[in-house]
Design goal:
- The chain is mainly alpha-helical.
- It contains four helices and no strands.
- It has a domain of 32 residues.
- 0% of the residues are buried.
Length: 69
């Protein structure tokens, strides 16, 4: 949906789920794939975790959240 489109524009590429990557690799002849979830962890390549969509609670003050609801 809309979130996927915005994420695609932000990344400059169409994001795929792990199962989609595995299927594509299997179709290309790759038999074994080792998968590590780095999405929520800091790594040497990414010292801070940056999210493409800020948390609603971090974006708005309590008063703003109440007025939106």
């Amino acid at each position: 949906g809309e979130r996927r489109r915005v994420l695609s524009e932000h990344l400059g590429a169409h994001p795929l789920m792990v199962v989609e990557w595995k299927r594509l690799l299997r179709e290309a002849g790759v038999e074994e794939v080792h998968v590590e979830d780095w999405s929520d962890e800091e790594t040497s390549f990414r010292p801070t975790v940056a999210r493409p969509f800020p948390d609603f609670a971090e974006t708005f003050s309590l008063g703003e959240r109440i007025s939106i609801l």
